[in-house]
Design goal:
The protein has 580 residues and is α/β, with parallel strands linked by helices. The chain is built from 20 helices and nine strands.
Length: 580
């Protein structure tokens, strides 16, 4: 008889990156790499488990921006070309490494992998990954939840209820459109939370969310069971706290499994190793070296002299690490269930293990194989715990008439140092004066046009005093002189054109709020791209605002923006009305 539960949660997210104005765009590869190394293999692994009769449970959050990219025909077609180039490269590499006892087996593995990915994408899933995930959820083995609309770091917008409400409500409606039901749970971006946020989650009909450990442990009152049962927020929404031990074993660069010397080295790639003339057709068209996905070496250690990757050794190590993880969870459940706190409790303890989905397959090449071993081992070896989803666990609470402890969680995130520092520091703090003013302007537009008037009643708007007499201010940035100006517009517009402009303004505002831009500026990995994207969306928002208040919109220009940033086609700008 099991004594507790393991709730594994994978958070899947990418920022919305789509550039129809270019034939090739480097940052779009982030999406194609994730499809090849994580999302399609993840679907494949889950389906193999189901076909083999393995009873498992796992929770997967799919951010709305990621689903939007799944559903985009342009990106689907570009991904087909991407995977075909990888197949071509692996075939070319097969000839180059023929007879090499170290590298020939690795190239063969990649070629088989890429061919299977292409077959799954084209034939099995018919390019429709959102529907493939929906079919997976319908089996009852996987619970899919949502995240905020554009993965905004909500604590830094919390002074504007309309902004929080819009991020959560739009995400909920988007989920319904793609999965046919309401989401039971939400992944708050970066686990960012401030007290009071629960009421917006409750308004959207969502039942649970996740917090980092200290968000629960520093709550008021201190919860009796720590993070090993969810707590009920004052709003009535349940919060599951992340377990430190299970997270550290997988996440930690020092103690975690992914750093084992037998695993594949992520950073050693043939895009940087091979002769430029040879590899040029498979990297950036301008000859800029990039990752190809073909990596032939293992981590080896803290040395530049990497040793060749050995497939069988890595597989054995992932199986060994899976057994270790299962054993540690079994010991943890035994300790918790026999403790005085849980001895007479109506609910059994649950270990909530949360991870970034792209850790598995992308950053940690063997991660999906490890996860497969974990799921099979828990089921086949009849341990003292089983896997469970948050909705199932809350259902047990109802069936046992057990009441969760009411607790007001504390401000928290799962970023470095546990609070807001990653998304608010001297590398990105300039963003917020623009974000906050843009939110105020969007609220103003939504209130002014809560019921659009017939075209003949349109007049230039009187702008609120905070914007100056003409209602227009130029948005300037610390590393670029000048400002963002609206183009030359035609005067007069129809009610339909006005509504389109208002909805596009909402889209640009949402896209400017993506937490990824602030995160990238902090880490310095693609800083100029992050700044460019943030400033582009903020600039377009203010151009739209200016054209609306001055009663001048050019339809051709609006068409261009709508085609470039076509996220959330059913968005309704009225979500920003002061009345809610």
């Amino acid at each position: 008889m099991h004594k507790g539960y393991l709730c594994i949660v994978l958070h899947a997210h990418l920022p919305y990156i789509r550039h129809p104005e270019y034939d090739y765009f480097l940052e779009e590869n982030w999406f194609y790499e994730a499809l090849t190394e994580t999302y399609i293999p993840l679907l494949d692994m889950f389906n193999r488990l189901i076909n083999d009769g393995i009873d498992f449970r796992i929770t997967l959050s799919l951010s709305p921006t990621l689903i939007e990219m799944f559903n985009d025909d342009l990106l689907r077609e570009r991904y087909k070309r991407y995977i075909e180039r990888l197949i071509e490269l692996s075939e070319k590499e097969g000839y180059r490494t023929r007879g090499d006892i170290h590298f020939e087996p690795i190239v063969k593995m990649y070629k088989e992998k890429f061919l299977r990915i292409k077959c799954l994408f084209e034939d099995a899933y018919r390019r429709d990954l959102a529907s493939a995930f929906k079919a997976l959820q319908d089996t009852g083995k996987v619970e899919i939840i949502t995240s905020a609309a554009t993965h905004a770091f909500l604590p830094n917008l919390s002074m504007y209820p309309q902004a929080i409400r819009a991020q959560i409500k739009i995400a909920t409606e988007h989920y319904k459109q793609n999965f046919g039901i309401c989401p039971n749970g939400i992944w708050l971006p970066e686990c960012g939370y401030v007290p009071g946020m629960g009421r917006y989650i409750k308004e959207a009909g969502i039942k649970f969310f996740f917090l980092d450990t200290h968000g629960v442990l520093y709550g008021t009152p201190t919860p009796r069971y720590g993070v090993y049962t969810p707590v009920s927020c004052p709003s009535g929404v349940a919060a599951f706290g992340r377990d430190v031990k299970s997270s550290r074993q997988v996440w930690s660069s020092i103690e975690g499994y992914p750093g084992d010397f037998d695993y594949r080295d992520f950073y050693r790639d043939i895009g940087y190793d091979l002769d430029l003339d040879y590899i040029k057709p498979y990297i950036h068209p301008d000859g800029i070296r990039t990752y190809t996905g073909l990596k032939y070496y293992r981590i080896t250690g803290k040395t530049d002299k990497k040793k060749p990757y050995v497939i069988d050794n890595a597989r054995k190590k992932s199986e060994e690490h899976a057994r270790n993880f299962i054993t540690n969870r079994e010991l943890q459940i035994h300790f918790l269930s026999s403790s005085r706190k849980f001895r007479n409790a109506l609910l059994k303890p649950v270990i909530t293990a949360t991870y970034d989905a792209e850790l598995f397959g992308h950053w940690w090449f063997e991660g999906l194989e490890w996860l497969d071993f974990v799921m099979r081992g828990i089921f086949l070896e009849h341990k003292n715990f089983i896997t469970i989803t948050p909705s199932e666990y809350l259902g047990l609470q109802d069936s046992h008439s057990a009441r969760l402890q009411v607790c007001q969680p504390s401000m928290s995130s799962w970023g470095s140092r546990g609070y807001n520092e990653v998304w608010l520091n001297n590398s990105n703090d300039y963003m917020y004066r623009h974000l906050h003013k843009s939110i105020e302007r969007m609220i103003y537009l939504a209130d002014r046009f809560s019921h659009p008037s017939p075209p003949h009643l349109f007049t230039p708007l009187e702008s609120p005093a905070i914007y100056g007499e003409d209602g227009i201010d130029k948005i300037s940035f610390p590393h670029r002189k000048g400002g963002v100006n609206a183009p030359s517009f035609l005067t007069g517009f129809t009610s339909s054109l006005l509504e389109r402009a208002l909805n596009q303004a909402a889209r640009e505002l949402l896209l400017s709020q993506q937490s990824d831009w602030a995160f990238i500026m902090k880490t310095g990995t693609a800083t100029e791209y992050a700044k460019k994207r943030f400033e582009e969306h903020i600039g377009l928002f203010h151009s739209l605002y200016q054209s609306i208040i001055s009663n001048t919109i050019e339809e051709r220009w609006l068409n261009e923006i709508e085609n470039r940033n076509k996220v959330f086609q059913n968005v309704d700008y009225r979500i920003y009305c002061s009345s809610g």
